[in-house]
Fold this sequence. Notes:
Layout: H1 12-17, H2 27-48, H3 50-53, H4 56-59, H5 64-88, H6 93-107, H7 127-148, H8 160-172, H9 174-188, H10 195-202, H11 206-230, H12 232-242, H13 257-274, H14 278-294, H15 313-319, H16 334-340, H17 365-370
Helix pairs in contact: 2-5, 2-6, 2-7, 5-6, 7-8, 9-13, 11-12, 11-13, 11-14
Amino acid sequence: MSSAGQGRHPADATLRRAPEFRFGDGKLSGVLSVFLGWLGLGGVLALHFPQYLSSPDLRSAYPMAAIRLLIDVVLFGAIGLGVVSLVLSRRKSRGLMGLGAAVLAFVLGGSRVAVRGDIPEVPYVALDWFLLSLLLLALVFVPLERIFGRVEQRVFRPGWRTDLAHFGVSHLLVQVTVLLATVPAAVFFRWAVSDRLQAAVASQPLWLQFVEAMFVADLFAYVAHRLFHEIPFLWRFHQIHHSSEQLDWLASSRLHVVDVVVTRAFGFVPLYVLGFANGAIVAYLAWASFQAVLIHSNLRARFGPLRYLLATPQFHHWHHSATLYDKNFAVHLPLIDKLFGTYHLPGDEWPEAYGIQGRPVPDGYLEQLVYPLSGRRDERGAADGGATSPRR
């Protein structure tokens, strides 16, 4: 296997000759204008229809003055960058799209849209969660990957639209996926609940509950992850995640909804049975969401001795190796892989390539959604009802 310095994508030389963005060509300002314009427009729509486009849990926690200020900053940024793009770029469409979205948002009331009275509880899509997550993660990881990337790859690399679709569905439909993941624990494991045990667990310091929650959730999720690799029918769903041939922060979202629900359900069982305090669970879920993005990111940092305690990009990238997928199943703690004999972290080396040999998984989001049940044949010619798992 190649070292970190040698494990470069074949397209790296091309990327160096043809940069994705050039100073002064107006492309970057146009892309940012579109990004901010549509984010701002989405935020204004969420203000207009909070009962349908926002999460009740988030609504109750919002500092609305800060949210309104953020919408203003985003919209004015879209306008300013759109003007810059129109001046500099030969291709005017990006600047016009960003400007158009921002102007429409202001016509609809901008950040001043009033949210009046009690908001009824109705089925919703969490547009606010999608917008905030996309903005914050992009602001953090895109610059980091451009500056400290392990391999030179484009922000808009092949497959980014598919991954953005996965990201959007998982965030917009978070109400559905959380419900499907948590209800089985309450239905099938109510018998295991002990009031005395839960009281003892909840009485511990929050930091200790956080560590315990991370360990037990990761242990159960490890079991689910192994099952998705070992059972051919489940592997068809998990293949979607392993089909990414270039890893970055957005690639972490490429997960079939069945994979998401089953894995989360496994991880939620111990949290439900042990009765951790809400503060510890919220802290764990926030950390789990961040770490899931981090370990897929295109960052060359090895994190020193910390990499032996917590999962890092190098640790998890080996799980996505095109030739070695049956190692490093844990999402948080490498210790769990050490306990089960699936730990693999060879010094400073990184995988040479990612993805699945033969590329059996289609590229588009809808195609990936139906692929596990499609009966499509893999590269070996076997019916995919018995698709080859990576261990076979």
